[in-house]
Amino acid sequence: MSTITTEELSATTLLRFATAGSVDDGKSTLVGRLLHDSKSVLTDQLEAVQRVSADRGQDAPDLALLTDGLRAEREQGITIDVAYRYFATAKRRFILADTPGHVQYTRNMVTGASTAELTVILVDARNGVVEQTRRHAAIAALLRVPHVVLAVNKMDLVEYKETVFAAIAEEFTAYASELGVPEITAIPISALAGDNVVEPSANMDWYGGPTFLEHLESVPVTHDLAHCHARLPVQYVIRPQSAELPDYRGYAGQIAAGTFRVGESVTVLPSGRATKISGIDLLGKPVRTAWTTQSVTLLLEDDIDISRGDLIVPSKDAPATTQDIEATVCHVADQPLTVGHRVLLKHGTRTVKAIVKDIPSRLTLDDLSLHPHPGQLVANDIGRVKIRTAEPLPVDSYADSRRTGSFILIDPADGTTLTAGMVGESFAAPEPVKDGSDDDGWDF
After folding, report:
1. Fewest Cβ atoms nearer than 10 Å: which of 14, 30, 36, 272?
2. CB–CB of 56/62 below 8 Å?
3. Which residues contact 65 (CB under 8 A, 6 or more apart)?
4. Whether 79 contacts 107, CB under 8 Å
5. What residues pair up with 289 in beta bridges, in sequence order?
6. Does the global pTM surpass 0.85?
7. What CA–CA distance (Å, rounded) separates 233 from 218?
8. Percent of the chain with pLDDT over 70
9. Residue 156 contacts residue 195 (beta carbons within 8 Å)
10. Closest listed residue to residue 267, CA positions, set 309, 237, 304, 238
């Protein structure tokens, strides 16, 4: 048997995916079935699930317990928090985020899907597409997740009828396509019985597509951040000032996108000062090149005033800095977001004061129409906002970079996360609105 080299274990062998769906659609059961049937569960984990299931009087192990780890989740039979699972098959490695289905936990779905390359949206075959299904589809489109799987679950409860599956798949595909979802794959399954999860179903011979796992193993992962615009948000300035390193000054952080090379001309934003990379330290050793997700320390030829929150970028590929940001947002807090709201905006490692200058529109999930000038966004609303920041920020369009095109809004009073934002155009273009210049509050 040949060994796998480090080069072969590249980013394309890893798939990050998230599950979503309405309450009781069977997300945790699907994940448990996937882990169980792909032999990704340790013996002691399975024994613990069997023991708890037997104590409850259940004849078969409740596979949902493999992911629902919180006591409240087990007691109530629901998923509350995002559960991350790591597993692998012979063909691919996986990082899975099992997200809650309750409307009040939609914010967790935003967290789980924000870094996903594929989102699985479950639908109960008995209920079809519901409002939460549409909300999850809208979030997947908003986050520009490249691949969406519609898993029509509980087919055993509708006698494995092809007509039921076809109707649901057609309705969802039409809706998601309007949102701009680039790829939609519909798969009929029964997570409880194991139909089409890992093994093909003997009860649905009318279905000729891949099983759920086969699709996960074969879907192309083409979003390679190493080829995006290079960006390094500075997290820490390293100055040992020791006898061995009296003049060492390094700028540490995790590369958000792209590749940096020794000798490359770079610009520090928002100051705009230019210099060259004189060295790159990785794990305590000098390297010539560093790329996305690596945590590195950059050494620069010139002494420049750089601190946490600054952004180092290639001089030939620097984003514009601006104090006026227009974005699509998903509001995640119970407290409404209103016009004139004073907030903190966190972009990368930088946090600045900001004010919500306008809310041009709110998305209506039923028909994807835009409700103009709603005045506020409440929990789980998706809408467009215009924000003015106290200091210039170097932001990319979210369409170009999911890492440096995103931000969160924070309540300055208690640090609560209010809103997740994506810079630039979304799947729904807002109507033009007049820029209000006489708003009260923080004025920049």
Report:
1. 272
2. yes
3. 28, 32, 48, 49, 52, 53, 74
4. no
5. 261
6. no
7. 33
8. 80
9. yes
10. 304
DSSP class of residue 93?
Answer: E
Residue 67: the pLDDT is 58
Query: In the numeric block, which tokens belong to residue 142?
Result: 């908003």
Cis bond upstream, residue 270 (ω within 30): yes
> What is the average per-residue pLDDT within 140-144?
87
Q: Which amino acid is at 17?
A: F
Residue with tokens 């032999």: 39
With CA atoms as reference, report the closest residue to 31 among 100, 102, 108: 100
Number of residues assigned to the chain: 444
Is residue 321 over pLDDT 90? Answer: yes
Which residue from 250, 184, 243, 193 is spatially nearest to 219, judged by alpha carbons?
184
User: DSSP characters for 257-275?
Assistant: BSEEETT-EEEEETTTEEE
Q: How many Cβ atoms are within 10 Å of 346's Cβ, its own excluded? A: 18
Q: In the numeric block, which tokens belong to residue 291?
A: 């790329």
Three-state DSSP state, 184: strand
| Predicted pLDDT of residue 39 | 75
In the predicted model, what is the mean pLDDT of residues 181-186?
92
* 41 has pLDDT over 70: no
Q: How big is the chain by its Cα radius of gyration, in Å?
A: 24
Token pair 């000032």: residue: 241
- The 8-class DSSP code of residue 47 comes to H
Whether the Cβ atoms of residue 155 and residue 189 lie closer than 8 Å to each other? yes
